[in-house]
Amino acid sequence: MNAKAKRRNVAENGDASEDLVLATSISNGEDLGPIVRLAFEMGRPESLLQQLKTVMKKKEIEIEELCKTHYEEFILAVDELRGVLVDAEELKGELASDNFKLQEVGTALLAKVEELIEAYSIKRNVTEAIRTSKNCVQVLELCSKFNDHIAKGQFYPALKTVDLIEKNYLQNIPVLTLKLAIERRIPVIKMHIEKKMSSQVNEWLVHVRSSAKSIGQTAIGHTASSRQRDEEMLERQRKAEEQDLSGYGDFVCSLDVEEIEEDCVLKFDLTPIYRVYHIHICLGVPQQFRDYYYNNRMLQLNSDLQGSSSQPFVESYQSYFAQIAGHFIVEDRVLRTAGGLLLADQLETMWDSAVAKMVSVLNGQFSHMDSATHLLLVKDYVALLGSTLRQYGYEVGPLFEALDNSRSKYHELLLKECREQLVNILGNDTYEQMVMKKDTDYESNVLSFHLQTSDIMPAFPYVAPFSAMVPDVCRTVRSFIKSSVDYLSYGAQANSYETVRKYLDKLLIDVLNEALLSTIENGNIGVSQAMQIAADISFLERACDFFTRHAAQLCGIPTRAAERPQRSLTAKVVLRTSRDEAYLALLNFVNSKLNEFMALADNINWTVEEMPQGGNEYINEVVIYLDTVLSTAQQILPFDVQYKVGIGAFEHISNTIVSAFLSDSVKRFNVNAVMGINNDLKMLETFADERFHSTGLSAVYTEESFRGCLVEARQLINLLLSSQPENFMNPVIRQKNYNTLDYKKVTTICEKFKESADGIFGSLSNRNTKQNSRKKSMDMLKKRLKDFN
After folding, report:
1. Prediction pTM value
2. Whole-angstrom Cα distance, residue 501 to residue 551?
3. Quick one: CATH architecture of 407-573?
4. How far apart are CA 698 and CA 690, in angstroms?
């Protein structure tokens, strides 16, 4: 029971605390919602209801106690309240009376106030109407002004008028109809202006494209004039240097600088494009116009790059490249002055496309060209194009690289043309000494190529030591040098001299030298022509120094640099070799002709019965021919070659005489035949001495004379006519008198030698003691030679 009592007390205490919390919350005016929600969630709504009833009972008790405490005061307050009610009724009556009086007084005044308010409203409306009318009038005036601008084609002022209406007046137009009409017309107006501008820019594009060729030609012509002035200045400078007055510091080089403004040279109007671009900026579509302009200019450029198919390239290349030059000159001006209409990247793309196409066209055209002149003309114009556009900042390196790549093609054609010219020159030349009748001929044919052998002006008519072929060849080579330098000038290569020298060597070696050798080896020339060719080659070899100096001068390098030994032409050595070939051919011609005259096996009776009183018939022709050859050589050939020709001819005669004795056609010979050949030999020796001294060769060549070349034949004849031929086997005597004779040759010849002549009385008529002793000595020699061999 105690436990139950305790639990009951605890429950009661818990309920009392909960009632206290509930009562406090109600007193404080707090929200009972959470308490109610918690009671329902815990499933005890009855307990909450009981607590509320308990709180209500407590409050009723408190109210009853409060009323009991203040009962008297409450009665007094009610009495006072009833007194106040009476006063309020009296005050209400007074207020109604005063209000009636006030209404009677204020009715007239209210009418006046209403009239005043109405007047103020009318004034406000009139003012607004005036302001609205003024706005409308201003807008309509601007619209009228806009119409005037449009009628006059003044699109920029018209557009500014539209912008003014749109920004400052449109939102303030009170007339909705007018406002809507203007709002609808503004886009139409802008579109109209844009179309008109597009029409104008299209007209300008057509005009500027038609003017591009003239613009390009003018600019390229200005570059050509500037180049010519530079060349003239360099030429004056070179002449001043060559005069070599007092060294490098003693001559003055003047540099004339002619400043020509671009606008004075290239007159074209970009105002329309500036205006149209600015209008598009005002329209708010600048990028649209930039794209339109760039795309149309690219289409024009691509069309120009296609070129003309109705004309050959060699006839239309100037127009083709001038058109492109004009296009990019205009674009450069647009880039610099049009305020962003064309971007640098766009122009670079445009230029790269054009360069690639031009390089392709050049490579294709150059590969099909068969004329060096045409290729040079195209190259020169393209070089001018590159120099012109380089001044505007364009990268023209690929163009010059394309020109340099065609260098081999150009020189191949140039060499081909020069080959034809040189072959014609050599084929048409008579190879006779050139005769000059006037000093002008001497200057143009000798002095201009430094071919003179003396600084003294000769008397006229002057017989030159060379034929007309030499100055003609020099002119052709000089023209080749000029053409080569012209092609290599103003290209990507800085120093063109080495290249010119390389191709000059190629011309002289592969073309000129081959043509000379072909002429020499042809066999259709005589001895005098061979002599003249040899002499001509000597002068051509001398002219090589002139060629190198001329090339250096045209290339703009000091001539002293070209005169260095290591820079000499290889062709000099090759021509010297060809000259030696000409000398050999000359000797072969002479020897061949001598063989015709000295057919000894046929012209001599080797077993003649009678002793001849003079020489054989052939020897006179030989002497006459030798005299002609040596006289001609004296006029044409230098000393050393004259000497070589004489030595070779006399050596050949000597060998021919010895070979005649060794010939198989000569079975035997007698002393009379030997004595006849001895007479021939004496005549030749006399002639040899006379020519050797008369030509002045004896003063220069003291070691071996013309007579010395006949020594083998002389020693053989002396041996055959000797009274004691067996002395040949004596070493001392042989070394002294027969040192040129060969044992085997002597053995063969002695075997054919018969002392007596053939015939019935031959042995009887020649029989004497001297002959018998010589015969015995000869027999002894034959026997000893047999034993020796």
Report:
1. 0.67
2. 7
3. Orthogonal Bundle (1.10)
4. 10
